[in-house]
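We close this part of the discussion by returning to an individual protein. In the encoding step, the backbone of a single protein was reduced to a row of integers, each denoting a local shape. The sequence in question and its structure tokens are set out directly beneath this paragraph.
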Amino acid sequence: MNIPTLYVDFNAMIECNLVLLSKTDFKKDAIGNTIELKEGMKICVYMDDEDEFGKPDNLIACGTVEENNSGAFQTCKWNIRIDKNGIRHESEL
């Protein structure tokens, strides 16, 4: 089973390991498939970034989908709780 990879904005962090994910139950993955988000679902997320030489080096993280019960950004329905590996650059893998 492949884990879906979805785009996020890591600037939209609610906590050090909690990021806003989606306003709706559906989000396109990195290859254009529509993914239905569900509580407890395992996913990976990414955001465009560059290394110090301007070469693409995306930020990535994996974690679990959870309903946005944070009290913040109430228009957002889903968040991702990032796992213990945190946010890394692809080049670090």
